[in-house]
Structures are given as C-alpha cells and as structure tokens.
Give the backbone structure.
Amino acid sequence: MKHTATTSSLRWTAFAILAAAITTFTGCDKKSDTQSANSQGGGKKLTVGFSQVGAESDWRVAETKSIKDEAAKRGVELKFNDAEGKVENQLTAIRSFIAQGVDAIILAPKVETGWEPVLKEAKAAKIPVILVDRGISVSDDSLFATLIASDFVAEGKLAAEWLAKKTGGKAKIIELEGSPGAAPAIDRKKGFAAGIAAFPEMKIIAAQSGDFETGKGKEVTETLLQQHGKDVTAIYAHNDNMALGAIEAIKAAGKKPGQDIIVLSIDGVKSAFQAMVKGELNCTVECNPLLGPAAFDAVEKALKGDKLDKKTIVQDRVFDQSSAAAELPNRKY
Ligand code: GYE
C-alpha cells in the first residue's frame, strides 16, 4: 500500500483542523492539536490493545515496530501483548484488553478460525477490532471493523510465475509452508498451486511446515533433502526466514543455494535482499509489514463512526537478483 508519511501527516493536519473547528463551534475549551486528535470527546488519551502473534520472523518484528512507533507518534497508549505463537495467549490478551476497557483493539491473528466468541465479546463491549496482516473466517463480518493485509494468493501466484519463467516451466519443488491454519500459509499455497497448474512439468515433490521460522525451515529442509535431494531443483518457502534456513541446509548438504537449487520466498526483508546480493536466494515477493500508519488511521475512523472498507489490500512487488543490489539501500525492514 502506498501509505507515505506525507499522506499521513496531511490527513493528520486535516483531522486536527476539523477537531479544532468543532471545539470552537461547540464552545469547548481549546485544546492542543495533539490532544484534540487523540481525544475521544473528553481530551482523554486513546488506549489501544495490540495482540501480536509472536516474533517468529523478521517480517513480524518489523510489523510490531511499525505499530509501536506509530502509537508513540500519535500519543496513543499502546497495550502490547506478544502471544509467543499461541492462539490461547491471543484470546487471553484480547479478553484482558476488553476488561481494561481499551478504546480499540488491533489484532494480528495467528490462524483463520476460532475468533467468533472473543470478537462477539469485543463487539458487546463496543470495542472496534482492526485486523492487521492476516484474515480470519467468521460468519458475521461486523465482528471486525476492517482488515489491512496483503493478497497472499496473489503473492503465491507471483512466486510461481517467476519460477516458471526462470525454469522454462520445469521444476521439482520442495514447498516450505507457514504455520498450519494461518491465512498466509493457506493462501500462498493456493496461489502457488494455481500459478504452476499451467505447467505440467512443474511439480511439488514434498511440502512441510517450517512454521515461518529460520530454524525450523533449516530443519525441515535438511530432512527433505535427505529424502529428495537428488531430484529437487527448487525450494519455494512461504516466507524469507524459512528460505534463509533452507539456504543453510542446502550448504550443509554440499550444494550451492541459488545455483544447484533455486530458492524463492515471500516477504522482502532486508536479510533476504542480502542473500540475493550474495547469490544464494533467487527471488522474494514483497509483503509490506509497515502497517502502523494504516492501522491507526483505521482505529481513528472506526472510533469516529466512519464507514471503513472491509479490506484494504497492501500492494506488493517482486524482486530478484537482477534488482536486489539497487533496492537493498531502500529497504525499510
Ligand atoms: O509472511 C511471515 C510472518 O502474516 C504476512 O507472517 C504475515 C507472515 C509473514 O511470520 O514472515
């Protein structure tokens, strides 16, 4: 998504001017712009709870930082919970945010299912929930205000298209999947499968979850290379961190990552660009984690009662070794 600091501050200024005008019109005490913008009527500082999955990848660390930085910039009090990869911890965190009476909740849900009861509790308490980065499946979409995320099916397709072009439509692929039940794992698999469907000589010969982590990506690749090492020509990982782990495993097996085996993944974190510059990673499809500004814009709109789109799609790009060196200095995460 093209959400620059400039657009953000323009909107901010417009909002502050509007708030000041309303204050003057209603004859209330004049407050500073910041107080006005943060107040929900009474000059009260906004309190927002953020339930984060964990810190399993560089992407997620960047997302956490973006949300924390944006809260600080806007003078919002952020209650942050790191669920350490456990859905139960996310449910507990959300219930605790509700009990504390936060103004809004930002949720990065680990998996797609199981959210209805807790979201109903938030709705009953009139606390808007903004979903960031991963979608959920619920029967009633009024249970969340909006979802701000990338199109993971499209990302998987872009990865498949890049690989088809690179290999002339011929590859024996190991797929390193993300966390079971997570939207990006489900959709990146779906998109990739759709992308290679037109190429009968592109086959996934093994697929296993590496839970979006470097260490697990390495472990799983080691095992799969022992079983399929002679055949594998490409490894497609649902995120960069697992690809970086796979690169280590390929080296340990005495092969050259990026040459003997093509490695491609999704996210576009700095370490992936470094690996492309070294010639070890071939391609990464960007997935922008800098969701803080859009998340807090959505919080403010939801609290004002403005209508929000149910989904905001973040725009992503494809990078490979031909564009990596030029792009590396521009990477923000
Ligand atoms: O690709 C991965 C992370 O939900 C889009 O989760 C996110 C994914 C991201 O751990 O690195």
The longest strand covers residues 202-209. The longest helix spans residues 5-26. Confidence is low (pLDDT under 50) at residues 1-41.
